[in-house]
Amino acid sequence: MARFQIEQATVRYGTFPAVTGIDFNLDPGESVGIVGPSGAGKTTLLRLLNGAVRPSVGRVKVDDSYLDMLSIGGLRAVRARVGVIHQDLRLVPNLRAVQNVVSGQIGRRGFFASLRGVFFPGRADVARAHKILERVGIPEKLFERTDSLSGGQRQRVAIARALFQSPDALLADEPVSSVDPARARDTVALLTQISRERELSLCVSLHNLELAREFFPRLIGMRGGRIVFDKPTDELHNADFEKLYDLSRSEILND
Amino acid sequence: MRGSRRIVLLAIVIAGVWAAFYLDLAPGQLIPRETGWKVAREFFSAAIRPAAVDESGLGVSLWGRAAKGAWLTVVFAATSMSLALVLGLVFGLLASATIWELEDSGSNGWRHSFRRFVAPVLYTTARAFIALLRSVHELLWATLFLAAVGLSDATAVLAIAIPYGGTLAKVFSEMIDEAPRGAAHALIGAGASTTRAFFAALLPLALPDMAAYSFYRFECAIRSAAILGFFGIQTLGSFIVQSFELNLYREVWTYLYVLFALVLIVDWWSGLLRRRLVAA
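The joint structure predicted for all components is written out below.
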């Protein structure tokens, strides 16, 4: 069970503050969408959740442990339970789909077992990878080289790799920004459905407000490294989004 | 950017022209003098009619010698390359910036100090060491071994393996450093140690290039092994020297064509394997 908690965290890259004093909570099995313009700090928020960045001020808690109190082994154990789908996917192009999928287990096994799994996946691993690829819709691509797949199919492989971790939570960074609109809807639907089936916590950052409102019961708006709103979706009004993107002002200027 | 590139290009051309004048190079130097003409004509006319049978009158089969020389050339090249590959892989990994730089934000305490203070020292030492290996040519290594312990099969292998190991290590380290690190970072984010992430997601990206380059170096090793015959090991070079000293140019050309065939065969074989590596 993953329960994330960010307490008053500030992250600086050099002197540039990526996020400033943010608070955030995500319960087991809950799903939330994060919206906001580019550079709002959405990616940094996600990176805080699996300890990919450390806050210079404030703390991050996953389940009952503060990430800064964990040993490296403890932190890796936490990361192994959190599946991340990166915007740029980050697959190994010249490995087969099955090998990329099985590499999801790398933090959960011993050194040689994990590497053998990637290079010479055993029958059980292949069967499990096949089942997961079936769930994401591309079982026939199991043994294809990853770089021979289309962008949408590669994204499925990245999702399958995260699922192969048997995670308690999924974090997806802009999963729909690099796919066409029809696929975008499929991708968000897939992520939310799978999270519901497996009772995973889900945290997705996205630009597409329409999809965000349709698929997430709770939305967080970010801007300039701060959280502007954090509400159930049905309590949000157009005014909230206009504030987020400065729509009203630009519209006034255009008139 | 474009302006500075033009300046560099101009500087290279000027340096080349200056060097030619400094060395007093002239096309006339390629023309042989007096008796040289005769030798040159004999040598090059032998190229179109290489020997098919023994011409030395020593009562040994030409093709027997050619086969033995070719076989030993390949054996020496393969043995040297195996050893060079071990050196190249070990030091190539140690001399790549990536293996030391793969960042794990969870690193703290002694890991952090290691990364900060010890890793740069190891990295620099590895780079200096491979520079030392490859700065001495295989012929010079052979000469040194010959003077120090006498040239045996083992020292001949070492003479090739040492500089080749250094070159492989340098090129491997650069290929590793050029590989994108995104996938490795993704696995670190999934709980992998930096070492695991390196082997699972970074090395596979560099491997096809590394394999292709190794085949090319195997080709070079065949030439080097042949040349070490000049020092007495029974590779093609030793037979070339013997025939050359007896002015049997047609035999020399037979051996040269055998060497040419060997290189072609390796090239064809590596092309086959490379296609499989890239397209598999």
